[in-house]
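Q: Now give one record:
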Amino acid sequence: MTTTGFDWGSFAAQLPVTAAAALGVLLATFAVAVRKDLHRLVDVAWGLAFCAVAVVAYALSASQGDDGRRLCVAVLTVVWGLRLSVHIARRGRGHGEDPRYERLLSKAPGSRAAYALRMVYLLQGALVWLVSLPVQSAMYIKGAMTPVAAAGAALWLLGIAFEAVGDRQLARFKSDPAHRGRIMDRGLWSWTRHPNYFGDFCVWWGLFLFICDWPPAAAVTVIGPLVMSYLLTRGSGKALLERHMADRPGYADYRERVSGFFPRPPRKAAGG
C-alpha cells in the first residue's frame, strides 16, 4: 500500500511544541550544570533532548499519521537517544569539566553562565530541533510503510550496532593498563577511525528514509540529516577530535592505515 498524503497543517502546528520540548531539556540541564559548575552534562542531555522531541511528536500526532510508522520512528529515536546518554554519563562519571567547554568558556566576554547558555545550550537545543525534523515529519504521513522505510530501519540498525560495538570495544581497550598511551586500532576501529560517528550518520539517514515515502516532506526535512552529517564530519565530531589527537604518538600512522569515516579494510602499515 502506498502513502495517501501528508498532514502539513498538523505538522506545522506541532513545530513550536517540539522546539519547546528540546529547549526544556537543555534549560533544565543548564540549571543543573551551573549549580555543579560542570557543563559537560550538556553532552548527556543531547540524546535526552532527541527523546523528548520524539515522544512529544508521537503524542501530538495521534490519529494524524500511520500508527506503525509513528511508533517505529519514536521507538528507534528514543532507543538511540537513551543509549547515547547512558553511555556518555557512564564515561564521564568522576571526571571534571570537558576541556572543550573549558576552552570555550575561557573566552566568555562577561558572565560564564550567560555565555554558556547562549553558545552551548540554546545552540544545541536549536540543533536538536533541526536535526529531528525527519522524525517529527514522519509522524504525519498517512499510509502504511513501504520497503523504503524498511531500508531505513535496516540502516538505523547498522548505525546503532556500529555505535554500541565501537564504544564497547574502546572502553575495554582503555580499561587495560597495558594499553595506556596507545592508539585503539582493533575491531571496528581498524576499519574506521570513528565507528561511533559513522554509526550516528547511519542512524539519522536511516530515520530520514522513513519520510521518503512522501517526497515533498523529505525535500523539506532533508536539512536534518545534512546538518547531522556536517556536525559529525566537519563540526564538533570527527574534525575536532582529530585535531585533539594529532600529536598523540602513533596517530599519524593510524591515520595512514585506517579510513577517516566510511569503513573499509585497513591498509598495511608502511614497511609491513
